[in-house]
Amino acid sequence: MARILLTGSTGYIGSHTAVALLEAGYELVGLDNYSRSLAGVSQRIQEITGKTYTQHRVDLVDAAALNKVLEQEPAIDAVIHFAAFKAVGESSAYPLQYFRNNLGGQINLMQACDQFGIRNLVFSSSCTVYGNPQVIPVTEESPLLEPESPYGRTKAVGEAMLRDWVKSTVPQDGQERQVIALRYFNPVGAHPSARIGECTVGVPDNLIPYITQTAMGKRAQLTVFGNDYPTRDGTCLRDYIHVCDIAAAHVDAVNRLLGQNSSSSPWSVYNLGTGIGQTVLEMIQAFESVNQMNLPWSYGPRRPGDVVAVYANNRKAVDELGWQIRYSLQDMMRTAWDWEQMQAKDPL
Ligand code: UD1
């Protein structure tokens, strides 16, 4: 079976994808520097699947260390590149850290792919590349607008670098490079086992971890950022998608890259969203109704850099990758809450 390299394998989306790939029969090599994740996640991945894989501690910014690992791990068929910082607010405060980590790490990875004969790559992109879109839902052809944050810029530039890379001189072995960029909308929820999920350090930036921590009593109350947006209830609208559905799309993407009729296109992009927009208030209500509780919350000012409304047209991923969405909004809320409670009982 094909061997897949995962960078950022113990992160939120990386870990769920590791489970999905192992369950689909792929062999894995995982890399992480644990700067935003915990090494213990790797045991949990193996516990859930009953399968083993090799995990290495390595920072992609350190090209020599990356190359050393790849010398020990030959015959990689494809790489999925998750490793990146993703806190929007932090990126505005420290843009250079984001450029060095996300873009510097990506350049080293592309260089290593060329050196070690890895021709297939899946890239973690984001709906952030659409900026504040004029028309929703967004399709893959929607214009890429000025990113709202340095984090967003690393995704837009990351995509652009990969587009140039696939167009560059074909490697000496004659095998063309192929890249699939997956534009995630808002990944939420956790694995149904509640053994892996989103590990947040300190005060969460994202809505769902903030909701579950408020439900747990770790936070006094939730603030809804702005109630005067031009949406149906005045709060921002997003396309929330279960992290296991996001993970499944990576299996579909790798199947396509490595499949018999993979000669589709050297560069393709897919939106990964449900195609349904939910407002912040609708998310709070959904959490309350699924988990039978009332959350303390109040309105606060708008958060700088927030887009008003974005959701996906996901037809391309469904039609071309054969992607199927299996989890509902209720599943997102139930699994997010199960994970928060499990972390209190048996923390990572
Ligand atoms: C942002 C990025 C996305 C990135 C993700 C990862 C943009 C446009 N989006 O998503 O690319 O992958 O972060 O961190 O840059 N909210 C509250 N109260 C809270 C927290 C959030 O009201 O305490 C609201 C926000 O204003 C927003 C919605 O909840 O309307 C979702 O916020 P969040 O979970 O942070 O995700 P995005 O900002 O959509």
Describe the structure.
The protein is of the alpha/beta class and 348 residues long. The protein folds into two domains: 3-189 and 240-272, Rossmann fold; 207-238 and 276-312 and 327-345, UDP-galactose 4-epimerase, domain 1. 40% of the residues lie in helices and 16% in strands. The chain has eleven helices and 13 strands. It has a seven-stranded parallel sheet, with helices on both faces. The chain has a two-stranded parallel ribbon with strand order 7-10. A two-stranded parallel sheet has the order 8-13. Strand 5, helix 6 and strand 6 (178-184) form a beta-alpha-beta unit. Helix 5 (95-116) runs parallel beside helix 6. The longest helix is centred in the first third of the chain and has 22 residues, at 95-116. The chain starts with a strand and ends with a helix. The model has no long low-confidence stretch (mean pLDDT 96). It binds uridine-diphosphate-N-acetylglucosamine. The site of uridine-diphosphate-N-acetylglucosamine has 23 residues, from helix 7 and strand 8.
- Strand runs, count: 13
What is the 3D form? globular
> Low-confidence spans: pLDDT under 50, at least 5 residues?
none
What is the CATH topology assignment of the largest domain? Rossmann fold
Order of helices and strands: EHEHEHEHHEHEEHEEEHEEHEHH
Query: What kind of assembly state do the chains in view correspond to?
Result: single chain
Mean pLDDT: 96
| Strand order within the widest beta sheet | 3-2-1-4-5-6-11
SS summary, helix count: 11
CATH class of the largest domain: Alpha Beta
Largest sheet report: 7 strands, parallel
What is the strand content? 15-25%
